[in-house]
Amino acid sequence: MSSDRNYEREFVRTFFTSPTAVGGENSAKMLQSAAQLRGMQAPDTWIPDNEDATAPSMRDEGVQNLVEVVSEHGAEFPGEIHPRVVWHRDDPTTRYEGFKQMLEITDPENGAVEHIDGFVIPEVGDLDDWKKADEFLTIIENEHGLDEGSLSMSVIIESGEAELAMSDLRAEKGKPSNNLERLFLLVDGQVDYTKDMRAMTPTGELPAWAELRHNTSRGASAADCIAVDGPYDDIRDVEGYRERMVENRAMGMTGIWALTPGQVVTANEAPLPPKTGSWLLELDDDEIELDDEDGRQVYDGDELSLEQVGDDSYVLRVDGEELECDGEELHEELLDLTTYVPSMDDIVDSMEEFEAAKEAGKGAIAMTQATTLVIDDVEVDIAKDRMWDEATYQAAMTPVALFQDVYEHRPDQHDALEEMYGADIVERAMAVGTDD
């Protein structure tokens, strides 16, 4: 199997769905609104949804709406367009309906196909089912005179069958008997997955399904696809949405479903390195961001207190526990309690410094992070050294590579990124790591 991606994007932050038809005088209004999103409000991938988001009685109208709106606005839309059609692993009638939808959407006479990047196939089962969708797309490409493989395929993991199929994907992808190399996104669909698994929670809320998200991220990595988390349906819980994305990124999943334009903005911005760095105190599994006051990091809370009782003698109280220590011991205790979140500028500075050291023949260098903590008006200088080697450098490259991918593929976001970081940092971030 080839280890190269077939598609230019290495990262997808946002997977935004819009119903293709809704009740009312203008059934295409949701599509028309989504098609005109720009900048941080526009998703990396837009999914006109002719499946769950659209009533079955309106899906024929939805196909026509999709064709008309994409024909009119597709050329200007800054992200990729991947319609979601009907499909089901256990129902050949539904699969045939999905085939007909894709055939109509891609008819060159309708004017939409030149703006269509691929299709999203829901409710897939084992790999034989994925291959059926793949074959339909190959037939469609040949029927309409399109280049074979020009339409990507993304699947939604909504069953145990589909989850297990990801384990076999690497071995199957690229065989002469199929064109699964067209695969682009592996997307979790926790609602139907919960139903398929017959899972229950006391409150009726969806389980977190951390194992599914991990398996999807692992499957995508092994098969050179991109992993996307499913919908976070409490659209008012912005902090919960952000926390979910932090968890996802720790397991290699950058993308997430967005149900509203507000979630699109949050999901577009959250994975990018922060504009400014911040120091955190870690207390009882909580991370508390310290207040930056003139370069000093000030703690204002009651879970931690500090008293200086002599020239080099202190009493540190953490959650009711009291520790008597000298200055050196205090420094070590506070280092254990603090962590630093680097800014884009910090990351680029460190990478440039390591590149210069490597050029000079050094394999590893120490980077120092230092600040002054203020706890109960007591000031303590702390500093920690981190050894940078090639592995550290490559790890730091991941958020920078994300930024570079966004900047390359989303020119409509250039102004927002330069406003966020400054033109100089943007220029340096685009240059770092590009010599290899």
TrEMBL record:
InterPro entries: Aldolase/citrate-lyase_domain, MS, MSH_C, Pyrv/PenolPyrv_kinase-like_dom, Pyrv_kinase-like_dom_sf
Superkingdom of source: Archaea
Molecular functions per Gene Ontology: lyase activity; magnesium ion binding
One matching Pfam family: HpcH_HpaI
Domain HpcH/HpaI aldolase/citrate lyase stretches: 114-258
Domain Malate synthase H C-terminal: 279-394
Transmembrane annotation, as ranges: none
GO biological processes: oxaloacetate metabolic process
Cofactor(s) this protein cannot do without: Mg(2+)
Alphabetical keyword list: Lyase, Magnesium, Metal-binding
Name the record gives this protein: Malyl-CoA lyase
Species this chain originates from: Haloferax massiliensis
